Hints:
Blueprint: H1 2-7, E1 22-26, H2 32-44, E2 48-50, E3 58-74, E4 80-94, E5 100-114, H3 120-149
Parallel strand pairs: 1-2, 1-3
Antiparallel strand pairs: 3-4, 4-5
Organism: Pigmentiphaga aceris
Pfam families: LptE (PF04390)
GO biological process, one term: Gram-negative-bacterium-type cell outer membrane assembly
Amino acid sequence: MTAALAGCGFALRGQATLPYKTIYLGFSGNNELGANLRRNIRYTSSTEVVDRPQDAEALFQMMSEERQKIILTLDGQGRVRDYELIYRVVFRVHDGKGREFMPPTEISLRREISFNDSALMAKESEERLIYREMQADLVQQIMRRMEAQGR
């Protein structure tokens, strides 16, 4: 089995190699995405997350974070049947002195969710879960882009 997995190119995700020794994460307030990114950097890379921008080699700046919910389909009575959930972030990484490590970069994720007004509480819970999963995916994509930027 090991030979089959190795032959297909499968490899366990190891330590991320970010191109900075220290990084400051610029998120305003108590931001869940920022907390997840901080945790991911601390536990999967050798990069140290610092609390002051002047102590960092790189500054991660969240420029925007947006969630949208768009109606996709309606039934014959005009009630919503499906929504599209969109989670979009724009960020950049720089040194604080004018040098851009990563210019403003947008990542946008989309998921479809069916809707049933007779199960409103369950659908709201499902929506929160989907946004949480999208957030975890965003963190992984941000990590991969920062890692690739150093190559």
